[in-house]
RNA sequence: GCGGAUGUGGUGGAAUUGGUAGACACGCCAGACUUAGGAUCUGGUGCCUAACGGUGUGGAGGUUCGAGUCCUCUCAUCCGCACCA
């Protein structure tokens, strides 16, 4: 009978469903593996990137299940978010209806791929039950002071009508819709991720070698820790008076306290309160004030692209060590969001300060020796630095910090580039932030017993404004504290909040889902995720947030896990015609069509064979044919099998071809452990199986065939589960899926060994050598075989590499 | 500019500690069979050469009996961050 994937696949998918074959055991005594592919957003249809992601995860889950591990391999839906609302605006569908019907469709698509997911642990993050527990976490974070509300300048995406976190701004544009981001002052909720910056940074060391180094570096840079000195510049009396006594001093931060004697001016961000005060109170020339306002309205990216620009503010500060008067400027290169929005400028030893000073003719004073030209940003001996002259930079940094601390003028400080995580979104399709604004009590969290604060279903989604804000009744409520009339918060949580703890939700036994968000015992058993698989695009966003949440939830007592994802594999993109598959480019390959034509096994085989998982995968239709051909051939060779169990084979009596076939089969078996547990180079394992099948085909021993198929089906089941299970069931009653198969070393023992003979570093000929031959015998044989090339030559060195080659180094005699 | 990665046939990609470069597959060429198929099977296929042989892992050096692999320099491509004081 020929290979009919549709029948075989439907049959086994049904059987797996009936057997509940992929549910983990509730027992916590067995060794476990938690294999997790990043959960999908229910956009409507699966794409090839999903197929790749889940094919990799499924291969690992199935492999470990076969090695007798208790395997958790769950799937769910990252279901809140903008596209649901866009669908509502465009097609008039309710986000909830759109989302859940997409989930139903995509769940079915996943089924046809034969993925071994747990069915009982599936959930969508928009389920009110999920929201309920999340809101509780958020309130607990508020009570711990980790969540706070503040009005500040935020990134605003006009097309998404919402605020974005710093991590969600890419090159000045919205990560989702690519619209330029604007700055806007508005209130919002923030999670104090900076409080965890040090731990997030330090624990990256634990992930070394287990996460791609690229991702670790990106996170390290994103956190951007730097150490230095923070100190205050005291305003001159005259300047204080000019500012109406509103300001006495302002703080600056420097990583180069050793250059402090080289300060020749100070610069404030255009948003700095002092700059604002001067602008707002007409203390600057109108023209200058206008220019400053223009800069302040520009996004950081726009500013970065422009030439340095600044204006003197007509005020001065006093140098804390020299007592000199220093002019204060405002400048477009000073960031409001870092280091207090103010800098000390040392043009001699900083490129930006130099550029600015040169443009505006400000003085430049060298205080570090070294380099021929200025600016010199390296280290060296201090000069013209008062009592610190002649000290080396490194020493001087410490000495100056110490001195400033003793004098009460400054403090050694750590600064981070990382900003606190803004989690409020002015959108409908998200988890409501469970707070109430009470005219008498202020900001009050909801009572736990009132959770979840669920979304109202009867909303009108027009794209204008926040539907929760516009809803006639939803936001009106009573204060949980005083009972008086109050107004509900209408902002919803960033969807990255949901994906920050889903790994714990899966681990929690579904029987407890109603009651608890995370079960401690379950979480401690299952976490960390042994292998996490997903796209590199989450290197910072999701992976940083999830690490942060893990630590916060640990400190709230929910579990004892420090890092959520033990090992991380970042899969490469799926390309066609050299570009990422996308609808707009029209270069997509539809997974459903592929499965319909070839079956899921071929789709999975091709995807794992075409490239190592970490690399980009270029789609190739005819290579898909090749994968299909291999499965057909494998299926066809079932007729060669003569026994129903692993046979005992007397290796000695076999002919050469059969011996070679066994070598190939066992080589594949040897390779499989390393591939499934370490390298994930499925392409090489599949190649090894192809070699084995080719070698089996060149011989006709029934036992060798039986053994070969017995082993190969075991190795291939994680990759092509339907056809492998079908064959294994018919041929071996699935006995070959029982556990690890032992490698028979005797197969690798050879009667003679092929040595390559190299003369003068070049391959010249080959010799067959008895395995027992001594080094002298091998050399004698090699010289005899290589006589032709040795004439007129003198052998100056003889090298024998056991089982490999002989190299004779020669020179003309 | 800073940081990270990658460069191997026509293509995707293989190559323990440095030890026969190009496994496996696609494509291509030739042939067989034929119920004429986008089927199956057999053989060939890095480049130059009629052949002997030479040459070959982005480029240039170096270490070594021996380098895709190690070292130095250099070029190209991709990705991330981007005035972080």
Query: Which percent range fits the helix content?
Result: 25-40%
The N- to C-terminal Cα distance equals 69 Å
Number of strands: 30
Structural class: alpha+beta
Anisotropy-based shape:
globular
* Largest beta-sheet details: 7 strands, mixed
Low-confidence stretches: none
Give an account of the 3D structure.
By secondary structure, the protein is an alpha+beta fold. The protein contains 28 helices and 30 strands. Strands 8, 9, 10, 11, 12, 13 and 14 form a seven-stranded mixed beta sheet that branches. Strands 2-1-22-23 form a four-stranded parallel beta sheet. The chain is globular and about 105 Å long. The mean pLDDT is 93. It binds one RNA strand of 85 nucleotides through helix 8, strand 9, helix 12, strand 13 and helix 13.
Task: Describe the structure in brief.
The protein is α+β, with helices and mostly antiparallel strands.
Features:
RNA-binding; 4-stranded parallel beta sheet; 30 strands; alpha+beta; 19% strand; 813 residues; 7-stranded mixed beta sheet; globular
Question: Topology, please?
Answer:
Layout: H1 5-19, E1 32-37, H2 48-66, E2 70-72, H3 82-91, H4 95-112, H5 128-143, E3 147-157, E4 162-164, E5 169-170, E6 173-174, E7 182-191, H6 197-202, H7 204-207, H8 213-223, E8 225-235, H9 237-242, E9 249-254, E10 265-268, H10 273-280, H11 286-296, H12 300-305, E11 310-318, E12 325-331, E13 342-345, H13 351-360, H14 393-406, E14 410-416, E15 421-422, E16 424-425, E17 435-438, E18 442-445, H15 467-470, E19 476-478, E20 485-488, E21 492-493, H16 495-498, H17 502-507, H18 520-526, E22 531-535, H19 541-555, E23 568-571, E24 574-576, E25 579-580, H20 591-598, H21 600-609, E26 617-618, H22 621-636, H23 656-679, H24 682-697, H25 702-716, H26 721-732, E27 753-759, E28 762-769, H27 775-785, H28 787-790, E29 793-801, E30 805-812
Parallel strand pairs: 1-2, 1-22, 10-12, 22-23, 24-26, 27-30
Antiparallel strand pairs: 3-4, 3-7, 5-6, 7-15, 8-9, 8-11, 8-14, 10-13, 11-12, 16-21, 17-18, 17-20, 19-20, 24-25, 27-28, 29-30
Helix pairs in contact: 1-26, 2-21, 3-4, 20-21, 21-22, 23-24, 23-25, 24-25, 25-26
The protein binds one RNA strand of 85 nucleotides through helix 8, strand 9, helix 12, strand 13 and helix 13.
